Amino acid sequence: MKLRHKVMILAVLMASLPLAVVILLSGREIGSRFQERDDELVAARMRSALTDLESRNLNLAVLLDALAEAVRADNRFRLALTGHAPEDRAYLDDYALRQSSLMRLDVLWILDEAGNLLSSAPLTGARGTQAPLLPTLLANTAEGRALMEIRGSDGPFLSLVRARPLDLGDRTLQLVAGARLDRSQLTAWLQRDGLDAALVWPDGALAATAAFEKLCRDLGAPDRIVYALQRQGAIVHRESMPFIAEGNLQSAWLIMTADQSDLHDFLAAVRARLWLLMVLAALVSALLAIGLTRRLTRPLAELADRTSSVDLDRLDVDFGSDRGDEVGELARLLGEMTLRLRQGVENLRAAEQRATLGEVARQVNHDIRNGIAPLRHVLRHLKETATEEPDQLAGILQERWPHLEEGLSYLQQLADRYAQLTPVTELEPCHLDRIVQDVLLDLQAVTREHPVELVNHVPGTLPVLVADPVALRRIFTNLLRNALDSLGDEGGRITVDATVDEDPDLEEPRLMISVSDNGCGIPPADIERIFEDFYTTRTDGTGLGLSNVRRLVGDLGGRIRVQSEPGAGSTFILSLPTTAAEGGRP
């Protein structure tokens, strides 16, 4: 990512992040404040409604006391109560209706000791209808009042009812009075828009609005109603109160709620405007950042263009600058750096020439020594024969002469190769078993004084390799010399084996060659490094043998790995293509 892009992103973040934090925090704070306000408002309306209900209850108690005094003073009522004439019954039947009209009561019942209805308003049933448990149920409530659903002439309605006993001579009657609760009363409790209230009882509901009443009737249970309202984000308060139905004392609920949808819409609109403001601020900051970064990065871009033209072959780029800021300081430092690079390149080239000559010399020394060692041992054998058994000298010379010629030919080929700075590989068909046998014969001259067993298990039926024979001979010479060095003076066994088999790493048929010995083995710490240039564990070693093997095997398109345990010997495993790759180098 370029510097100007980073500056632009940073500017946008600096402009937008504070606004985003303000939007999120302010939205939460405003929503919380409004919710607290509405929650307190609903709680206040709930308290006001409960106070109004209690006021109505006390008013019913006063009216019942007044009614009791009126009944005691009404001799006609006493006579009608004990008489059986039709006019007495008519007087009793109409008594509750007349008194309820005078006292403005919506419900008025007069019950005898058995709970039989003597007179009622409204006319909910025939005289003699029984309600024996009603006074007892009302007496069991905390405030002596309860809600009931009353059947009126225009249909059922909800009423707040209260009872009072009336002692009349040797009889005790029960007076039950009630005040009607309707939608207008619920609306009066609310006193403002946005609030709603409902009275919910088993199998019934009354609400300030038709929609809320339908919701309450559809859901039925108060818990379900409260849950549905809260899911919509509304504020909900509820209070229970006693409800009498079917001779049982049950519970009704006064539910008040504040609709928050308008608040949510308002907050959403405010947030949308604030987010739009943030986007505009981000765009403005991005435009300003683009202009600023162009001004800042233009000299850096020019400096980068000049720097991109610098390489080891062109270190004469001019970084001169008359700027007094950090860009000018950077230009001067780059100029000093290129000057140091020019000097360093000259020194490096000289060092590379010396190092190249040294490496070539070490490789020549290593290969020549490996080639001379068999010849030295053959000549030593001839000298010993000439001294001790001169009559056998001709036969021995005749036997060893091919080895002398082959060794000298190998040295001549090495000399010809090293005479060229970029030698050309000569590819020709190679029989692996013959090359291994020739190297083992040369090694026999070296091992005459040690009990070393050389075993060649390379079959003559292997595919013919198209490769550089000198490279193959160098590979096996180095591996077998290393195996011989690992045996020491005690001697041991060296085995060369080969077969065509599947390489487990490459999963394809390869020529698998192994060179094994039962010598001292290789410590685990050295296994990872034995193929590195100049790494050796011997005091007289050059560290080039195995690194040359790795390079030569790679030139043939192959791979080499080693398996070894200290004290148990080592096995070098070569994996070569069945037809060696062309175009390799020695």
Just give the CATH class of the domain at 425-586: Alpha Beta
Unreliable parts: 580-586
Q: What value does the Rg take, in angstroms? A: 58 Å
Mean of pLDDT: 81
How large is the count of helical segments? 14
Strand content range? 15-25%
Helix content bin: 40-55%
The rounded distance between the terminal residues' Cα atoms is 46 Å
Number of beta-strand segments = 16
CATH topology assignment of the domain at 425-586: Heat Shock Protein 90
The shape, in one word, is elongated
Q: What is the CATH homologous superfamily assignment of the domain at 425-586?
A: Histidine kinase-like ATPase, C-terminal domain
For the largest beta sheet, what order do the strands appear in spatially?
2-1-5-4-3-8-9-6-7
Largest β-sheet summary: 9 strands, mixed
- The structure class reads alpha+beta
What would CATH call the architecture of the domain at 425-586?
A: 2-Layer Sandwich
Query: Topology as H/E string?
Result: HHHEEHEEEHEEHHEEHHHEHEEHEEHHEE
